[in-house]
């Protein structure tokens, strides 16, 4: 379950302690972090919505920022070397995230603090059995077998980073009888064994709707059970792989919560794919009915020309204005 969106959930909440997860930062905190968003919106002279005949939309100024070049940063080099040696994949690299230099380098603009460098490890390899139309992760019907040492190696790497909050994500493995649930649960166990105080968020597959696998993960010791609905119901079949269904994702989130009510459940929605405001409101109502605790929004960014076009740049003002759904 990987998404191409600016401001990944891992980036947003990486530094928050357990007591602060529930209080968490609001939307304004993230918008303010990028400078004066309303000025940037005023300066934007191009279209915000794709119209018939348009090839693509130009990147608006509020999404442009000074790039931290990954190749120039020592912390980035160190992380790359360590992850390469342990043969661990990261969503940052596989999803070609434009923020890699910033996250791995430690801190945001003007900040260089190695202790807050974050990389989101992608479990179960770098190849997914699904092919969502917004995602640039490699796909194959038969990816290589799981690395049995991955849980131990992941725990070793993360424990050495000195972070208090980690986000693990994974590809979907429909080729495995349990979708990789036991392997993922082992990763959480190993991490909690090495560092019990570490808060662990896992962004998990839908396990093809198998609720036993959902329950196994919900009771594995993780703190935040994340599974992305990615988009509104009406766009799901255009955006996600046909095996990923909106109602199935809602059922997964609800079952995770009922299997372990102490968990926080979380989902993310990409904006800018052509959804309407009413569809977003309906999605939020659905999520509430399914007891989802946290919802994050992200602007969809087209990773390559072969992927879905951005249909709309959602302005920061619109996000703030519509945040009282
Ligand atoms: S299921 Fe696979 S293709 Fe779809 S978003 Fe997740 S990693 Fe990408």
UniProtKB/TrEMBL annotation:
Kindly give the NCBIfam families that the UniProt entry links to this protein: lipA (TIGR00510), PRK05481.1 (NF004019), PRK12928.1 (NF009544)
Q: Which PANTHER family match?
A: LIPOYL SYNTHASE (PTHR10949), LIPOYL SYNTHASE, MITOCHONDRIAL (PTHR10949:SF0)
Phylogenetic placement of the source organism: Eukaryota, Metazoa, Ecdysozoa, Nematoda, Chromadorea
Q: Which HAMAP family match?
A: Lipoyl_synth
The protein's required cofactor(s) are namely: [4Fe-4S] cluster
The entry's [4Fe-4S] cluster 1-binding residues are 92, 97, 103
Q: What family does the entry list?
A: Belongs to the radical SAM superfamily. Lipoyl synthase family.
**Location relative to the cell:** Mitochondrion
- Quote the catalytic activity from the record: [[Fe-S] cluster scaffold protein carrying a second [4Fe-4S](2+) cluster] + N(6)-octanoyl-L-lysyl-[protein] + 2 oxidized [2Fe-2S]-[ferredoxin] + 2 S-adenosyl-L-methionine + 4 H(+) = [[Fe-S] cluster scaffold protein] + N(6)-[(R)-dihydrolipoyl]-L-lysyl-[protein] + 4 Fe(3+) + 2 hydrogen sulfide + 2 5'-deoxyadenosine + 2 L-methionine + 2 reduced [2Fe-2S]-[ferredoxin]
The protein's name in its UniProt record: Lipoyl synthase, mitochondrial
What is one GO cellular-component annotation here? mitochondrion
List the GO biological process terms. lipoate biosynthetic process; protein lipoylation
- Organism expressing this protein natively: Pristionchus pacificus (Parasitic nematode worm)
- Primary site of residence: mitochondrion
Instruction: Write out the pathway annotation from the protein's UniProt entry.
Output: Protein modification; protein lipoylation via endogenous pathway; protein N(6)-(lipoyl)lysine from octanoyl-[acyl-carrier-protein]: step 2/2
Q: What are this entry's molecular-function GO terms?
A: 4 iron, 4 sulfur cluster binding; lipoate synthase activity; metal ion binding
Q: Which UniProt keywords apply?
A: 4Fe-4S, Iron, Iron-sulfur, Metal-binding, Mitochondrion, S-adenosyl-L-methionine, Transferase
Q: What is its EC number?
A: 2.8.1.8
* Record's keyword annotation contains Cytoplasm: no
* Co-factor remark: Binds 2 [4Fe-4S] clusters per subunit. One cluster is coordinated with 3 cysteines and an exchangeable S-adenosyl-L-methionine.
């Amino acid at each position: 379950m990987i998404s191409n969106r600016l401001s990944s959930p891992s980036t947003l909440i990486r530094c928050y302690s357990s007591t602060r997860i529930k209080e968490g930062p609001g939307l304004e905190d993230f918008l303010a972090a990028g400078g004066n968003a309303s000025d940037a919106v005023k300066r934007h002279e191009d279209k915000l919505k794709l119209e018939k005949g348009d090839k693509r939309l130009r990147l608006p100024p509020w999404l442009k920022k000074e790039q931290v070049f990954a190749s120039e940063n020592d912390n980035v080099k160190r992380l790359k070397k360590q992850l390469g040696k342990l043969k661990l994949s990261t969503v940052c690299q596989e999803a070609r995230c434009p923020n890699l230099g910033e996250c791995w380098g430690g801190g945001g603009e003007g900040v260089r603090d190695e202790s807050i460098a974050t990389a989101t490890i992608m479990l179960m390899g770098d190849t997914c059995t699904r092919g969502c139309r917004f995602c640039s992760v490699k796909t194959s019907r038969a990816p290589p077998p799981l690395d049995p040492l991955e849980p131990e190696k992941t725990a070793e790497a993360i424990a050495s980073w000195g972070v208090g909050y980690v986000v693990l994500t994974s590809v979907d493995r429909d080729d495995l009888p349990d979708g990789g649930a036991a392997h993922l649960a082992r990763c959480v166990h190993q991490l909690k064994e090495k560092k019990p105080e570490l808060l662990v968020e896992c962004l998990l597959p839908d396990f093809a709707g198998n609720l036993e696998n959902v329950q196994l993960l919900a009771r594995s010791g993780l703190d935040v059970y994340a599974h992305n609905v990615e988009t509104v119901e009406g766009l799901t079949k255009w955006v996600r792989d046909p095996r990923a269904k909106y109602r199935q994702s809602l059922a997964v989130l609800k079952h995770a919560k009922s299997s372990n009510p102490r968990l926080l459940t979380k989902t993310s929605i990409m904006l800018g794919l052509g959804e309407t405001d009413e569809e977003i409101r309906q999605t939020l109502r659905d999520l509430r009915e399914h007891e989802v605790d946290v919802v994050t929004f992200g602007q969809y960014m087209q990773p390559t020309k072969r992927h879905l076009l951005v249909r709309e740049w959602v302005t920061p003002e619109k996000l703030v204005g519509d945040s009282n759904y």
